[in-house]
Amino acid sequence: MNIVWFKRDLRICDNLALTEAGREGPFIPLYIYEPTIWVNSNLGNVHRKFLFESLQDLNADLSKLGQPLVFRKGDCIEVFSSIAKMFNIKTVFSYEETWSYATFERDVALRNWFRSENIYWRELPRNGVVRGLKDRNDWSKKWKERMDRPPEKEPVKLDGVEIRSDRIPGSKSTWRVDPIDLFRKLPGGRRAGESVLNSFITSRHTNYKGGISPPNKAFVSSSRLSPYLAFGIFSIKEIVHAVKALNNVMDTSDLALLKKRRASIRSFMSRLKWHCHFIQKLEDQPTIEFNNLHSLTNVLDREFCERKFVAWQNGMTGYPFLDACMRCLISTGWINFRMRAMLMSFSSYHLWLPWQQSASYLASLFVDFEPGIHYPQCQMQSGTTGINTIRIYNPFKQSIDHDPDAIFIKRWVPELKEVEPENLFKPAPILKKTGYPSLIVEEKESRLKAAEKIHSLKKVSTFQKESKKIFLKHGSRKKNFKNKKTSKLVEIQQSFDF
Ligand SMILES: Cc1cc2nc3c(=O)[nH]c(=O)nc-3n(C[C@H](O)[C@H](O)[C@H](O)COP(=O)(O)OP(=O)(O)OC[C@H]3O[C@@H](n4cnc5c(N)ncnc54)[C@H](O)[C@@H]3O)c2cc1C
């Protein structure tokens, strides 16, 4: 008997493990809910809800094919060994996981156990992440080759296997998900994902370029596919192909609109590639979850301060726009890229807190938490990678640029509803009367102090040498990067609309 072990690939379409297992006869489709992994990976209720909704849909899809999902809770070696007592397990099919350090360690132990039990573990590539990548220069080409292949077809029929399943928590996925409210926590599952994808493909993508930085607009203009990608409700390849198909059916009569849509699609496609580009970093260096990428940044004297952390955590820093973003994130489980960057940068620069605790906290809030994107991004916004331009976001400037009428602020910080917008974009003693906290730190002073500390590090003679090594291992390649001087080898993110 074989097993298909579902993890974060909760779909029957474009699932290579399913295709490959199907070629070799009957198999058990298995999901293991592993409490220890959840505790050690910053996962909580927002993720659990999304997961169980997704499993309900997966179970419904598999049941239609003839074999429901087998759901088990527990340590994975114990679960596999209990199944091994009932069946002679030959091969376990799964994808190659690049996730938290806890899953990395689990896989080391599991590999040894499989070996001792003579079970073959066939791990198949996931998305564009390349296991055992030797040379970053080849990565882009490999990514493209993978994305150009057609998505795997879903199986037509599965042979039933006599095995019991524990009950999947949550209710059956019989509810209608259309229309989805993009301003609330998104529901999990393939049906909900299809609804989000369809609305993006049919109309929402038009305003993607230019519409993803202001947080109010971003809720609609961004694809909002991130949790569906993080849980593998869709593969990246499925989205790439869906967008390519859109290119072929676009109305060409309105040239201005066509140009706008094409620019948006290009911009969106570059993010899909970034998705894998970032996860590749964690694949190549799993310690990115804990350790500064650039070792010389270890000397930065960041110190945990509970008072500052708690204020930041609860959206009570005295910076209206920043607090609005945090409160919005707590309520909806999502915030757009620029605001994530601002939240992280404020914690790491203005408050001078170590990035690790802040990153863990944000991970527990993001429904789309994806360690391979999250930790490198958090380090990027904290100045510890050595290869990225230092960007310290001033929350006042961000609010003027992206919420000029303070609509977003007033929505999420209701105690400031009656305050004139201009008093929300600068230090204003008048806010005290509303009961809203005063500024936790002075903006300019703390920003300049942080910038000075980070920039002075770059003057250390060995800094650039290590940066170059990091770039060669992890940096994104532009066409002419080989001719660039070491000091110019920064990972450029022009495509992020800064
Ligand atoms: C501090 C910080 C932490 C982040 N943590 C996560 C995380 O845990 N999970 C996560 O999916 N994204 C993370 N991001 C990246 C980005 O903010 C989100 O992917 C994006 O906001 C998700 O919304 P969307 O699906 O509408 O994005 P879209 O703009 O529609 O992009 C489509 C997809 O491309 C990928 N993508 C988009 N932007 C990036 C990026 N900058 N880097 C890598 N991939 C990208 C995502 O998979 C996204 O779903 C983080 C960014 C920052 C600054």
Structure notes:
This protein has 498 residues and is mostly helical. It folds into 3 domains: 2-126, Rossmann fold, CATH 3.40.50; 190-283, Serine Threonine Protein Phosphatase 5, Tetratricopeptide repeat (Alpha Horseshoe), CATH 1.25.40.80; 288-496, DNA Cyclobutane Dipyrimidine Photolyase, subunit A, domain 3 (Orthogonal Bundle), CATH 1.10.579. The chain is 48% helix and 5% strand. The protein is built from 21 helices and 5 strands. Strands 3-2-1-4-5 form a 5-stranded parallel β-sheet. The N and C termini lie far apart (53 Å). Mean pLDDT is 93; it is low at 493-498. Bound molecules: flavin-adenine dinucleotide. Flavin-adenine dinucleotide (FAD) binds at residues 212, 222-226, 229-230, 268, 271-272, 274-275, 278, 336-337, 340-341, 344, 366, 368-370, 373-374, 377-378, 381.
Question: How are the SSEs placed, and which strands pair?
Answer:
Layout: E1 2-6, H1 16-22, E2 27-33, H2 35-39, H3 45-65, E3 70-73, H4 76-86, E4 91-95, H5 101-116, E5 120-124, H6 139-148, H7 190-202, H8 208-211, H9 215-221, H10 226-230, H11 236-249, H12 255-284, H13 306-313, H14 320-332, H15 337-350, H16 355-365, H17 371-380, H18 395-402, H19 407-412, H20 443-457, H21 463-474
Helix pairs in contact: 11-12, 12-17, 16-17
